[in-house]
Design a protein that fits this description.
about 210 residues; mainly alpha
Amino acid sequence: MDRRSFLKAGTAGLGVGLTLTSAQAVAGENGKKWGQRPKLPDAVDHEAFAARVIEEFTTNKRSCSESMVIVGCEVMKVDSVLLPEMMYGLAGGIGRCGYACGLVTGGAVVLSMAISAVETERATAWPMAMASVESYVTAFEQMPSVLAAADQPTANCYTISKVNLRDPEERKNMNGPTGVKMMVCKPIAKEAAMLLAGCLQVIIDTYR
């Protein structure tokens, strides 16, 4: 199957339309610069950050990865439709495959954005981002809400949720007021959002 047929078949099956408008809206004149650089605030209100993440995750029915990035964009004054949309495929442990939790991948994106706000040279920013994300993931694995759900330190979606999201029947266990999303994922999302806000504050205090 050629590339055009593959994209057409894929979008037909998913009910998604692919356009260039979002990318064009943020691309620079040379096609390589993508929008404005993030701006870090003087301080991050941990409780407000977590409340917004939970609002997106529950009331607005976003995925965990989307929720983290949407709020991260708000805090860093990044006006981008594209960034949250790029999180679509990370839900459910990357494409519902049960791997890295979206709170982890979404958090990694937010922290990388924050580093880009304080350091523009890739050679310097890359190791800074790696260290920041490593600290976040290591702390995430040890969060009380994660340990309560998984009985072990982990950042794995399936290990935490115990739901095989590739199975349409098992996916039904995620939804509803007593589903896994509300009973298991929501408290983890709140704690992870508080943790992420703290990591952002460390970047602010250290590098600004």
